[in-house]
Design a protein that fits this description.
Length: about 375
């Protein structure tokens, strides 16, 4: 039984929406998606983009990021996070992680912000790894205290909640979603920028189409350019597919939580394998991350040899050649992230996994774990 790390599922509604677009139906799929998404997450303003990275890049534009500005992020994030900062010749600042959640360590973040008060410190990007959130109330309090903007990377957090509120409506300045996140690629690309700020959304709308402006009282082909923007627009075909994806997301999360429970109940007593905490009832388990204490890579190879796909979230940014060289970072500068990186392994988890497939993964993990001494 081959069980890939991820497998997309195309619903009947997705086919219907895409067919409407191909048939030339008078439906603005992008506008429909934006309207439905705003209602789904409870946000005032949303803007669909071509990709999750586009949403993050547009967020930096909307915050008017400039050369020499600083943006703080977790050292355990996808390269897209510091990448969008570097595109402005601004500087990403890395913070070590919490050993259990793999998210940014808020104590260390607080210390850094307290010791580095500066007008150049513009924002903090909070990544919700696997959709599990940090203490966002504390984050927002820090933002007010130190006068920085909060941008949430919600690539894994579509439909996730914090104290009952959907991510996207909890108080960040900007939240960026990715409908085809990293190792769990979908068949379509798309992102969403979400904000409750009138100023931010107006600037984002201006810059997402090359900062082109038109006078409604003149011919359509007459335009002006008033700033430096780019093209971040989402295609109607992608929007059509994503509409169905969003509508199904709550059911997807329930299934992922069920699978996570099955994994944890079966693997919690297995030697050499540590399972994630199940205490947070709001964890959507977009990822199911275990720790392997004996040679994680060979463990993954053995799973691959029996047709089980795995993932890694993530290689810490300070170990990547560009950032290591650019900022003279040392291997031991972020010890918690380094230690976690050497052990973490993401198992397959997606809504259309059958119980039999989940059991097959469990059986093979147990069998391989028994060979460890």
């Amino acid at each position: 039984m081959k069980i890939p790390y991820n497998r997309y599922e195309s619903s009947r509604d997705a086919h219907s929406h895409v067919s409407d677009t191909l048939d030339g139906e008078d439906i603005n799929q992008v506008q429909e998606l934006e309207s439905e998404f705003a209602q789904y997450v409870g946000a005032e303003h949303v803007l669909a983009t071509s990709h999750g990275t586009s949403a993050l890049h547009l967020a930096m534009l909307a915050l008017d990021l400039k050369r020499g500005d600083k943006v703080v992020c977790s050292v355990n994030a996808h390269p897209s996070v510091p990448e969008v900062v570097r595109h402005f010749d601004a500087e990403p600042v890395f913070i070590d992680i919490d050993a259990d959640s793999y998210n940014i360590n808020l104590d260390k973040l607080d210390v850094y912000l307290d010791e580095n008060k500066s007008k150049k410190l513009k924002a903090v990007i909070i990544t919700h790894l696997g959709g599990a959130t940090v203490d966002l109330d504390r984050v927002y309090t820090m933002a007010k205290t130190y006068k920085v903007k909060i941008v949430e990377d919600a690539s894994d957090a579509l439909g996730a909640t914090y104290k009952g509120k959907k991510i996207g409506s909890t108080g960040a300045d900007i939240v960026c979603f990715n409908f085809s996140p990293h190792l769990k690629k979908n068949i379509c690309n798309g992102g969403m920028l979400v904000t409750n700020s009138d100023e931010i959304i107006e600037r984002a709308k201006l810059l997402m189409n090359h900062a082109i402006v038109r006078n409604e009282n003149t011919l359509d082909y007459i335009y002006d350019v008033v700033d430096i923007g780019n093209d971040y627009s989402l295609s109607p075909l992608n929007a059509a597919y994503i509409r169905a994806m969003v509508a199904d997301q709550d059911a997807v999360i329930l299934r992922q939580q069920t699978i996570a429970t099955m994994y944890s109940n079966a693997l919690e007593s297995v030697d050499h394998v540590s399972v994630p905490s199940m205490e947070n009832e709001e964890n959507p388990f977009s990822l199911y991350v275990i720790k392997v204490d004996k040679n994680r890579d060979s463990f993954a190879v053995e799973l691959k040899n029996v047709s089980i796909g795995t993932g890694l979230h993530y290689i810490p940014l300070h170990l990547l050649s560009y950032y290591k060289a650019k900022y003279s970072l040392r291997v031991n500068d972020y010890p918690v992230a380094l230690r976690s990186y050497q052990q973490v392994l993401s198992l397959p988890i997606y809504a259309n996994m059958s119980d039999a497939e989940v059991k097959s993964v469990i059986d093979k993990v147990k069998k391989i774990a028994k060979t460890r001494v």
